[in-house]
């Protein structure tokens, strides 16, 4: 039984390290992209196609009383960080229990960056 516990501990530790390396790689990807009006516009189209069911067209998460979605216009209440890299990782890999990963749904990492740029464009100008 002790061997099984050691094996499980090793596997769990390996998964944690792999997860942290993936998050760092995603962070590097997000940091390498810049926002532009064109990127924000592409992100808006992706948002309308993939995100309105939970977050609503305005991003305020008023669309579904059943979804426990984040109000994207209030970053001061976000739990997973508000740096561009944090937003990218939340979209790409998911966040919490209710936010699914969209990295597999979207065509490429540029789509994730465009979507992150659009989400950040919803923030108050003072943010």
Explain the overall architecture.
There is one protein chain. The protein is mainly α and 127 residues long. The chain has one domain: Cytochrome c-like domain (Cytochrome Bc1 Complex, Chain D, domain 2). It has 5 helices and no strands. The chain has helices spanning 2-32, 37-50, 52-55, 84-93, 109-121. Helix 1 packs across helix 4, helix 2 crosses helix 5 and helix 4 crosses helix 5 (109-121). The N and C termini lie far apart (53 Å).
List keywords for this structure.
127 residues, mainly alpha, Cytochrome Bc1 Complex, Chain D, domain 2, 0% strand
Short description:
By secondary structure, the chain is mainly α.
The CATH topology is given as Cytochrome Bc1 Complex, Chain D, domain 2
CATH level 1 name: Mainly Alpha
What CATH architecture label applies? Orthogonal Bundle
General form = globular
Count of helical regions: 5
Secondary-structure element string: HHHHH
Strand content: under 5%
Summarize the main sheet.
Answer: none
Q: Cα-atom Rg, whole angstroms?
A: 17 Å
> What's the total number of strands?
0
């Amino acid at each position: 039984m002790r061997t099984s516990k050691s094996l499980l501990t090793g596997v769990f530790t390996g998964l944690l390290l792999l997860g942290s390396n993936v998050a760092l790689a995603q962070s590097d990807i997000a940091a390498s992209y810049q926002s532009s009006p064109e990127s924000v516009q592409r992100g808006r189209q992706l948002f309308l196609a993939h995100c309105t069911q939970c977050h609503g067209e305005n991003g305020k998460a008023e669309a579904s009383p059943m979804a426990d979605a984040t109000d994207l216009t209030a970053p001061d209440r976000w739990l997973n960080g508000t740096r561009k890299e944090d937003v990218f990782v939340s979209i790409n890999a998911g966040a919490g229990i209710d936010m699914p990963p969209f990295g597999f749904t979207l065509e490429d990492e540029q789509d994730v960056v465009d979507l992150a740029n659009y989400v950040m464009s919803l923030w108050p100008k003072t943010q």
